Amino acid sequence: MKIGIVCYPTFGGSGVVATELGLELSKRGHEIHFITYSQPVRLELISHNVHYHEVNVPEYPLFHYQPYELALSSKLVDMVKLHQIDILHVHYAIPHAYAAYMAKKMLQEEGIYVPIVTTLHGTDITLVGSHPFYKPAVTFSINKSDAVTAVSQSLKDDTLRLFDIKNDIYVVPNFIDLEKHNGQGFTDCQRGMMAKDDEKIITHISNLRPVKRVQDVISVFYSIQKEMPAKLMFIGEGPEKEKVELRCQELGILDKVVFFGKSNEIDKILCFSDLFLLPSQTESFGLAALEAMASGVPVISSNTGGIPEVNVHGMSGFLSNVGDVDDMTKNALYILSDENRLKMFKANAIKQSKKFDLHTIVPQYEAIYEDTLAKCLVI
Ligand code: GMT
Question: Is pLDDT of 267 > 90?
Answer without folding.
Answer: no
